[in-house]
């Protein structure tokens, strides 16, 4: 010890002086002590304010709501994920309910038919539904008896018929393929018709418009009012010029008691001439056409035999007739023959 006195810290002295016997602070003794020392009285928290002058005073705590506390504890992405799961669950529930409702709608209650009921159905008419109903048959159906359809029949797919089909009226708007078809009455085709295979017409075939044939046309007899050929005409058999026999008029070259005859038609034929007494130069006979030509035709005359070939014959022609004549007086009491061919 160096004789110096030991001093007690002010904080310790104040604490000791301010304590009572029971450990409680003596506020009465503290106030005079403060007055004696010449210092102002301090509040109970003055020591703490002096030791931490930069710390803010604590604010009173607010009472947070449940949703605010829940939002602080749960992440927003977790909430979005939970929301997506809820929406997906609702969609799946709605789809399940719709499917269940459709299954209940399509379910048909079956009923067993007795033999008595079947006999009643077989012997009488049965009406299923009304005019607004639709009967759907999902599986195959076999009709053992006759089937009557009072209104239109529409077939969306292919129609195959194994037996005979009898139709009073058939209208085909699109393409159609028939293996074998028998038409007892008229067959009217409004548009173009293409026949790939053979076609047999038992009765008459009438074509009001033009007809084009890409291949050969074979017919035992063809009757036509007009025939126009754009190519060569090939005939492998005889040509027979038919038609009515034209009329005739005798000329002065026949002489007294002479005669003439004709066999054939306007197109071709033969003329026989027999002169009488005193024939003169001129025409033997005039042939009058049954049907007049539109223009003066070409007349080809050929003498038959040497007697006719020795004559000085010639031809006069017009749209209505032609004549066989002799430039000189022919011999009396002689016979001559001529063939003719007339084309327009």
Account of the protein in words:
The chain has 344 residues and is of the alpha+beta class. Among the domains are: 68-96; 247-343, Immunoglobulin-like, CATH 2.60.40. 22% of the residues lie in helices and 15% in strands. The protein is built from 7 helices and 8 strands. The protein has helices at 10-17, 27-37, 46-51, 66-73, 76-106, 115-123, 306-309; strands at residues 247-250, 259-264, 268-274, 282-288, 298-304, 313-317, 321-326, 335-343. A hairpin with a 3-residue loop joins strand 6 (313-317) and strand 7 (321-326). It is elongated, with a radius of gyration of 67 Å.
Keywords:
alpha+beta; four-stranded antiparallel beta sheet; 7 helices
Q: Which helices and strands appear, and what pairs or packs with what?
A:
Layout: H1 10-17, H2 27-37, H3 46-51, H4 66-73, H5 76-106, H6 115-123, E1 247-250, E2 259-264, E3 268-274, E4 282-288, E5 298-304, H7 306-309, E6 313-317, E7 321-326, E8 335-343
Antiparallel strand pairs: 1-4, 2-3, 3-8, 4-7, 5-8, 6-7
């Amino acid at each position: 010890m160096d004789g110096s006195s030991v001093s007690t810290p002010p904080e310790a002295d104040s604490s000791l002086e301010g304590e009572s016997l029971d450990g409680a602070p003596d506020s009465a003794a503290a106030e005079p002590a403060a007055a004696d020392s010449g210092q102002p009285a301090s509040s109970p928290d003055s020591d703490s304010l002096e030791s931490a002058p930069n710390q803010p005073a604590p604010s009173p705590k607010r009472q947070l709501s449940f949703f605010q506390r829940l939002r602080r504890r749960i992440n927003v992405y977790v909430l979005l994920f939970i929301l997506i799961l809820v929406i997906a669950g609702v969609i799946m529930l709605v789809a399940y309910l719709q499917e269940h409702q459709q299954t209940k709608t399509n379910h048909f209650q079956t009923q067993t038919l007795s033999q008595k009921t079947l006999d009643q159905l077989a012997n009488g008419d049965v009406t299923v539904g009304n005019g607004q109903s639709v009967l759907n048959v999902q599986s195959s159906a076999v009709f053992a008896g006759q089937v009557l359809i009072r209104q239109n029949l529409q077939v969306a797919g292919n129609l195959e018929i194994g037996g005979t089909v009898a139709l009073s009226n058939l209208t085909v708007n699109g393409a159609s393929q028939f293996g074998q078809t028998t038409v007892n009455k008229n067959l009217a085709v409004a548009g173009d018709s293409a026949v790939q295979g053979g076609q047999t017409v038992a009765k008459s075939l009438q074509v009001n418009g033009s007809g084009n044939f890409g291949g050969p046309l074979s017919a035992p007899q063809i009757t036509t009012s007009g025939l126009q050929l754009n190519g060569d005409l090939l005939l492998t058999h005889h040509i027979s010029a038919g038609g009515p026999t034209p009329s005739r008029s005798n000329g002065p070259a026949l002489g007294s008691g002479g005669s003439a005859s004709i066999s054939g038609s306007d197109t071709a034929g033969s003329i026989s001439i027999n002169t009488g007494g005193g024939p003169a130069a001129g025409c033997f006979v005039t042939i009058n056409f049954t049907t007049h030509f539109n223009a003066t035709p070409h007349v080809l005359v050929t003498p038959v035999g040497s007697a006719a070939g020795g004559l000085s014959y010639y031809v006069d022609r017009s749209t209505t007739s032609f004549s066989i004549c002799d430039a000189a007086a022919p011999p009396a009491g002689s016979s001559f023959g001529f063939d003719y061919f007339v084309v327009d």
